[in-house]
Amino acid sequence: MQPRAPTERAARPPIVVADGDIATTRLVARELEAVYPQVEIRIPDTLFGTHLEGRPVVISRLCHPSYGWLPEYLAERGVAYAYFLDDNFWELTPEVDVHLAAFFNHPAVVATLENFVRAARRVIVWSERLRDYLTERFPDVEVVRVAPGFDATVPRRLLAAASTREKAHDGVLRVGYPTTRRPGVASLLTTIVKHVARERAGAVKFEFVGWMPDALAQVPHVTLFPHIDDYGRYLEFVISRRWDVGIAPLTGGRFESFKTDIKYREYGGCRIPGIYSRVSPYVEVVTRGRTGLLSANDADAWIDALDTLLDAPALRERIAAAAYDDVAEHRDLQVTGRRFAELVPANDVQPASA
Question: What is the pLDDT of residue 350?
């Protein structure tokens, strides 16, 4: 059965159900906001007593056993939902993150996750590899991949208001990396940053947002900024830092190969030339030398790539412009959000039989 277009649906706002107001939750809400004027974010416990008829429902990444009652609760009320997933939790091992793996590998968590998947009207993912994985694992479940979008509203406004690529700061080159915990690349990052900081002696500053390796805490010209919850404010902050280069290292392990190209979308949308690990998902979207640089995952290759961009302002400008145009043309949230919304069950109220 083909999903109905959002324009044919009831006007009641959709609900995104998640266990926290994390970045992924906000990104899903922004996709829906491309179609709907209002989107509600709820935790499961706040659904009691809520009338869900005529309201599209998305459950985002939910798999905590304490919420295992939700699929049955919705089914008893005739409420269908789309389940959204942007990580392959089945492949999250201690080598990736020992703390997260202890949770996601627990049998009760796995069982809850699989129950949410099987009970969904359809599963929505942003990765072709994850779609194929889930289709094979759950052959009776409809799994649909939608290209993840980028909301360029904030960057477009700020970039139009001032020429942020013209450095009004102290002339020191800045390298940025906003991220959550990435223990798998901590050693690689530490080697790269220490070498460049030593060789360039204050001519380059590294700025991390949200996390950085502990070993860099005392390295000169390295700064850690706190995580920013609000996505609009986060993009404003990124643009305000006027990074000359953005970096996006990934280990290339199986778990990370199912991720999306979010750093490419953000760097490109903010006109920041990026260097990315030469692994999925970046090898599928970055045109080497035109929309970004791709580096092998060893320190020497990363240092060479950084030297190439740091020493070539014209190349940085060309890459920034090409990546911005690519994201604007192919990842416009107005397009991706409409497709996302089309796939979410509307839970229309059926008219009573005559």
Answer: 53
Q: Rounded to whole angstroms, how far apart are CA atoms 167 and 175?
A: 13
Give me 90's structure tokens: 């089945």
**Cβ–Cβ < 8 Å for 248, 275:** yes
The answer on 307 and 225 residing in a single domain is yes
Q: Is the peptide bond before 281 cis (omega within 30 degrees of 0)?
A: yes
Same domain, 198 and 214: yes
Q: With 50 as the cut, is the pLDDT of residue 165 above it?
A: no
- Domain for residue 136, yes or no? yes
Within 184-316, strands assigned E span 204-209, 222-225, 245-248, 274-277, 293-295
Count of the separate structural domains present in the chain: 2
Distance set, CA 279 to CA 38, 196, 226, 295 (Å):
37, 23, 28, 9
295 plus 229 within the same structural domain: yes
**Predicted confidence band of residue 166 (pLDDT cuts 50, 70, 90):** low
What are 170's two structure tokens? 């102290």
Tens digits of residue pLDDT in 275-330? 999 999 999 999 999 999 999 999 999 999 999 999 999 999 999 999 999 999 99
Please say whether the beta carbons of 261 and 282 come within 8 A: yes
Domain that holds residue 64: 6-149+333-342
Least Cα distance to 342 among 8, 1, 5 occurs for: 5
Same domain? For 56 and 185 the reply is: no
Alpha carbon dihedral 31, 35, 41, 42, in 10-degree steps, equals -120
Rounded Cα distance, 274 and 267, in Å = 6
Residue 227 in any domain: the answer is yes
User: 26 lies in a domain?
Assistant: yes
Measured CA to CA, the distance from residue 264 to residue 283 in angstroms comes to: 11
| Structure letter (DSSP) for residue 219 | S
Residues 71 and 176 in one domain: no
| CATH code for the domain in which residue 119 is found | 3.40.50.2000
Cα 146 to Cα 27: distance, rounded to the nearest angstrom:
13
